[in-house]
Amino acid sequence: MPVARTHCVGLVGVTGRLVEVEADVGPGIAGTHFIGLLDTAISEARGRVRSALINSRFAWPDARVTVSLFPATLPKRGSIFDLAIAIAVLGAAGAVPAQRIAAPMFLGELGLDGRVRPIRGVLPAALAAAEAGVRTVVVPALNAAEAALVPDLTVVPVATLAELVGWLRSDDLHRLPVVADAASLSQDAEQAEHTEQTEHIEHGGHTEHRGHGGPVEDAARPPGRYGGDRGTPGPDLCDVAGQPMGRKALEVCAAGGHNLWMLGPPGSGKTMLAERLPTLLPPLDQETALEVSAIHSVAGTLPPGRPLLTRPPFMAPHHSATMAAVVGGGSGGVVRPGAVSLAHRGVLFLDEAPEFATTVLDSLRQPLESGTVTIARAVGAVTFPARFMLVLAANPCPCGLQGTVGHPCKCTPAGRRRYLDRLSGPLLDRVDVKVKIGRATRAELLADRHFVETSATVAERVRLARERAARRLAGTPWRCNAEVSSSALHRDFRLADAAMAPLHRGLDVGTLSARGLDRVLRISWTIADLTCKDRPGQAETSAALALWLGVD
Hints:
This protein is an alpha/beta fold and about 550 residues long. Helices cover about 40% and strands about 15% of the residues. It has 22 helices and 20 strands. Strands 5-8-9-11-10 form a 5-stranded mixed beta sheet, with helices on both faces. A 5-stranded parallel beta sheet has the order 13-16-19-12-20. Helix 18 (about 455-470) crosses helix 21 (about 515-530), helix 20 (about 495-510) runs parallel beside helix 22 (about 540-550) and helix 21 packs across helix 22.
């Protein structure tokens, strides 16, 4: 019998690599042999695939079965290859036409009863398939909406192996009358709601999706991440009264993509401010939404029924989180993205930051500079995107009462110093905006109620500021002021000597480092964008310096 070939995708981080699956059924002692640098999950696939075929009423070849996954040098992990292996074996045995399985790509895990189970990483796998020129992808039915986000890709979801074989043998899903009815109903619903991004043609467990690749619709926020389910009011900036400086710092950070450190006693509103930062950020565009969703697809954290994340993510790990949980990692050769990657193009909030392990805090320094995190293992290195806004919140001392009226602090000077020293100087030097959050009095709360603004009002100013920055940065690889390189700041966006005077004084007296100078310049450009000025002046650079130093 001839060798049958089909295709699958191996994931390395969030990057998909095309894998050719070959099966040969030939003479020799009956047995099944897998080759191609496989892990335990794929080696165990011989049992899953054999049981799935037999329980789907297909005969397992009584011959020597050899399955090869090419390239052999690429490490392959997980059960994503089950469906491709089964189809390749059926093609080599003559149960399905070999020419019908050569072009499509098959992704999915098989149950022992022949069901096609959902898997992680379908979105990056589908993106890799489209980049490789594949036009048809077969995926588990529960992953169909995720794969259909990729434009110009025909997605054929299946629920069982038997249904897939029937489709491969007939090559005409549209002969089924129920499919045509379902297609018309889906199209009617699509025209009525104007929210669907895929065509839906359903017959039992079968559905065909064709991604349009049009504008991204604003999907609902994941439950518990932005304050509730669809229709439930989320957090709003107007909830935070008595903290005008905190709200202003939040607006500046949202407009320029800057990092933020808040220092204040418990109950002063630090966590409330941090949770409202995502409400000020603009929605993700098409390209960024796919990039963010691909990371969450690999991690298995996509919310059910919402495969596309169109809002900036917000991650708030507990202070007991390990290095692997925050930066990324794993055991057994499986590397998963950490909180820094799950917060890509969003916000990473570390509440009670000094309580985190020092090694975890210092590990943030490299991704804050490069926007990526590289995890090295013996079998190779994996790189994940990690371009996020860092928000740190800390108490002034272990008891949190330093500086509060009527509640004397019980900590020793050495204890207070050791507590805040856990936030290293190099880490704080990478934080653009530093603000002290004090407890508001009753009079301050009542007076500030007349000046609070809703998130929608502030978000509109943020949007306009980002648009000004985008026009200025057109033709460059940067999206916001916080990403502009040091060389560009001093060459292409050089300020006048009068505007630089406060910063030169800071350099002379040692209150400002070279890295701090660049960060102050970026903040000054953001303040100018918020005030609709073409270039920062001395007022903007002075205000930016005050924000960086954390002075009132």
